[in-house]
Fold these 2 entries.
Entry 1:
Amino acid sequence: MTFALALEQLLNGLQLGVMLFLMAAGLTLIFGVMGLINLAHGSLYMVGAFACATVAAWTGSFWLGLIASLACAAAAGAIVELLVIRRLYDRDHLDQVLATFALILIFSEGTRWMFGSFPLYLDIPPLLQGAVALPGGTQYPLYRLAIIAAGAVVAFALYLLISRTRLGIRIRAGESDREMIGALGVDIRTLYTVVFALGAALAGFAGAMVGALQSVQVGMGEPVLILAFVVIVIGGIGSIKGALLGALLVGVIDTMGRFLLPKVFVLFVPPSQAGMIGGALASMLIYIVMALILAVKPRGLFPPAHA
Amino acid sequence: MSRETVVNLILAVLLLAVPLLANAVGQPFYITLATRIAILALAATGLNLALGLGGLVSFGHAAFFGIGGYAAGILATHGFSGDPLIFGLSGTNLMPVIWLVAAVTAGLAGLAIGAISLRTSGVYFIMITLAFAQMVYYFAVSWPAYGGEDGLSILVRNQFPGVNSMRPLSFFLICYVVLLVSIGLFALIRASRFGSALQAARQNPVRVATVGIRPFRIRLTAFAISAMMTGLAGALFADLNRFVSPSMLSWHMSGELIVLIILGGTGRLFGPLAGAALYVIIEYALGGITERWQFFLGLILLGVVLFARGGLLGFVTGKARHG
């Protein structure tokens, strides 16, 4: 185990964390403003990836694909909000879970219908191909660094949007008192649609970025969705700051756990078993961390003050 | 007799009559279908205890279902090979022993998961139960000793003393009796002082706390009993398929169990059975027409949630009873 290898894994963890943040930010925003739990958020991630792969295959340009992923995911989000989600705001969480679970079935099977069961592939754009030399001498893919940078830019933009713009003021007002901002003349229904579409666009963007690293296939959103749930539970549901911290924590712990735990167990047990125990424990590690955090702070690290 | 009681009786009789008829005319496939209904109904009855009576929306009951399944699979594997399991104890192929182990293991898991999850409520509870179930799922996938991702086959279906469990009808009857006993237990619990406290804790936890009952303990007990019932169903499900795999632990399974309850009618005695029957029939009927049956299942489910909140029993008996 060398320093360079550890650094590489740390960067991988950061990259995972940044992608998780894009998912978790949308989820937590939607929950914070509308009080809605959206299981279908992973489907919007998938929509973004499929849109990007399809448009990139047509036009040969990853960048057009990326724009398409934002547009398609936002449009899909807006349509779903208008047709279905809107009717769920006044319902209990059980109904929300079920309706959005139904949406997952519809999205997944619908996508399989349109695109077939075979995964699509998305190439990394030429501009971002290649590798960068890290201190310590190893090469690290430029594209993964670009993902980290893109995530950081989006996180900053989101911060500016929420703290500095009129829309952001309305979103924050919606989080603290829905009836009041309705009474003050803000069209709350449109605001909800906009917030949902914004969350969807973030998910779609994440899907498109990750699509170039993995294959684009039906069901790709579900593992990410569940990790994003862990993130917002750790961070405190409704808190963007919590989502950012939680996402980086989960990304780094998960990646480093998979890398380090088998090596730690080698010190105690025979290597064949160390891989098995370490691997099994590493796959459970973030859930254990989540349980520990909740045992101390049941509402997450940054619980929203008003809830 | 109320209308709901009549409907319940019809459901119970139908579930028994169809396999008997199928056996008489030599169509064992329908017996398997009915067995599937009975087992899923049992699993959902367990969940209904937590979700329907206690208002605890557990999105992680697949964990208990799968733990029960793996208990059956692992005991049967050791019973078959003769290798000792732990502490020198050997495996077994006797269903009553397997059921006991499955229920107790699932119950202990329920206690552990519940003890942490029940400190929270609402959306947190939904997500945390989901996350714990995923933890068990990933453990099963990455632990190679019992098949890992490939799952575990049970070579010969486990035995019940005095019954030839390999006959489809006999196995169905075993599951049917277990289901009826469990539904009876559910009714007993619902009518008991404990059940009243549990339902009161759902409706108004503050008031329950004010009269000196801690909602946490009541809920934890209910959650553990609920896990035991679902675990028992998992053991039977493993024996039905003679196969256990991590898919029993997947979050789709958790979602399906909730769907069964909602399709049938939340908190109702025979809601899970009605829902399971409806679900398996929809799956079978749509699956015969189109390969894309999940798409239409999603549409049906969406329709039920948005427009028909009482589920099948609510529709038939005409009285809305939700949450």
Note: The CA atoms of residues 161 and 219 of chain B lie 36 Å apart.
Entry 2:
Amino acid sequence: MTVFSRNEKMPDSNIIAKTPARERTDQPVAAPPDTTRAYVPASGSSNMSVSQASRVSVLSKALKITGQLESTEDIQIEGEVEGDVRAVLVKVGGSAKVKGTVYGEQVELAGTVDGKIEAKKVVLMSTARMSGDVIHQDITIESGAFIDGHCRPEYGKTDNKTVQPVPKFVTAVRSPSQLE
Amino acid sequence: MSILPRRAISTAKSNREPAELPVSLLGKALTVRGIVDTDGELHVHGSVLGRINAGRLVLAVDGYVEGDVLAKDVQIGGRLTGRIFALNVALGSSAEVTGRVFHHTVTVASGARIDGRMPWRPANFFESLEQLPEAQS
């Protein structure tokens, strides 16, 4: 029997069923003594938090990305992005700077965006600084927010259909009742 | 060059304050095309197509990187195509690395797949790395 075949779990107590065995086995191996120590003891618990948190991407203050970001999950930006961001919920933190377009279902802005926001729901916090257009269906602007640009509502096709027919329908119902 | 700022990995700090660094996390569903640059720690669960500069890079099992990596510490659990320039490199048993691994210290777990050379370099080589050398064939 091969003791260490590729897909077999290594004898590692950190292995947790939730994450694939492969992930944990690589942790204790790390060479740099101090960094390893900082990481490994945490790996049991941070294992969970990482797998939970890995649903949401966090770009910390010290991070700068030049290029595109695309996700089918949520993104929290505290750092700097030069390029477009596309995700479901995009939180642009107070220290964050984005130069480019932010697309999302929902965009929460507390930091700076220089470009465009396109989202169904847009929230501009009091610390927000927005230079550029905001295309939205639903917008909240807190007092103190700075906007230099247009706020343009753009309703999705489904919303458009449900909103428009209603007045016509009401008048149609009314008129026969008035005749009687 | 704006792309490669404040690089030059400082060896002096390598044994201290590892946990102080802010951690950035690129989730599973995230794809980044471009340059990722941080002094802190970077965990990649998604894909990065492009260059990574980091204090410490952790490439998770489900993570994928295509491009060069420059960092002080690198821990690989996932797939990487490109070069690694790091003082300390740790390749986990699930690592799949295609490309050169420039290192000062390296550990490779049994099971890791490496396709490429692993040249050793003195520590000052990484300190002076302002700009990555051109890829050789």
Note: The radius of gyration of chain A is 25 Å.
